[in-house]
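Take a specimen:
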Amino acid sequence: MKLEAFLSRVSNKHAENRLLKFVVVVMLLITLVNFAMLNKALRAQRVILIPPGLNSKVETTAYDVSDALIETFIRHVAGLAFNYSPASARGQFDNLLTMFTPESYPEAYRTFYDLASTVEKANVSSVFYLHNRITIKRADNQVVIEGQSRKYKNDVKLEDTVKKYVISYVINNGELQLTKIAEKEGGNQ
């Protein structure tokens, strides 16, 4: 009789060990699934920078953004690039340069710092009144803007003309970045 009791206890211990091994394997699988899901969530995480002046809903993906976001971005860029005084030019151009792609940064740096030096030496101020003529050319990744450009030196108006600018951009991971800002030839048409 004692032999049967011993075999029964040994059988119970084997069953208990199998149950504990099953529980450990299930916990391991749950941990691996949790790790995989957490890793996927961290890779999918994005930081979205909202430009100043955004007052409508916009959509953005890694390779495309809505027209409202492009227009808001371009209005901000135009304010930084074309409205300046001798005291504010370098600061504004510093902010503007952070919006350029790394490849186009050196050329933009030279262009805007040469302009800042000229503005400081000549004591010239500029104001650009953007008309509501913003043309987005998605196929070329360009935006054409038109506005009234006025330049002043010591409160005396030097220039008052209509100008057109072509602003080229790229979209990197849902972020708009500038590649070039150029005055469009024949801008007074």
